[in-house]
Design goal:
Blueprint: E1 5-9, H1 13-25, E2 29-33, H2 36-45, E3 50-53, H3 62-71, E4 80-84, H4 89-97, E5 102-105, H5 110-124, E6 134-137, E7 140-143, E8 148-151, E9 154-156, H6 160-170, E10 177-178, H7 179-187, H8 195-209, E11 216-219, E12 223-226
Helix pairs in contact: 2-3, 4-8, 6-7, 6-8
Length: about 240
Amino acid sequence: MGKETILVVDDEEDILELVRFHLSREGYEVLCAGTGEDAWRKIKTQRVDLLVIDLMLPGIDGLELTRKLKNDPQTRQIPVVMLSAKGEEVDIVTGLELGADDYVTKPFSPRVLLARLRAVFRRRAVPAATDDAIIRIHGLLIDRGRRSLSIDDRPIDLTYTEFQVLAFLASRPGWVFTRSQIVDAVRGDDYPVTDRSVDVQIVGLRKKLGESGHLIETVRGVGYRFTEKRGEETHTR
């Protein structure tokens, strides 16, 4: 039974009550907000372990609220699950690119939402220290325990998903992974993310890696791999 505090942000009272009821029954502490502004005040003044955010909010909408959250060093590590009637691919990709951990479309099943939230908490749990918790390769230091990246001692800020993708690829340099394998490794089985979403994450990663971006190779018709050799010729989009 969970005891984490979840903030649900939605301007529809019936949705707020439905989600609050099911989360409370599972043992979570639940806070509710009807606007982005109210949600931000609660985030800054109360403990919040996860947010469920509707995109279409009055005033500060869900995307802008997520952007504020991820741009603030004090709140950027709080996981976000977007809950929205906007289910087009571009909406999902935009939400994930901003750093959302999951995206659930309305109408939704409360049981599915609960399963997604539990999965987010499992993924966010700090792993025990192991021999491969830190990856050092080609000037990159990837600390999976702290979920941090530095290149030649310079810290690089990545979204949660970008970091997970990088750590997964870099843990097996030279191995080629399909987009589906990357999604399964980062998000879990049956996660409804399109191939395009993986491509967006790779584009963002390469941009943030700068001169080291070429280390992530595109294997045409298959997927991606992290190069074994720093000076190896690469093929990118």
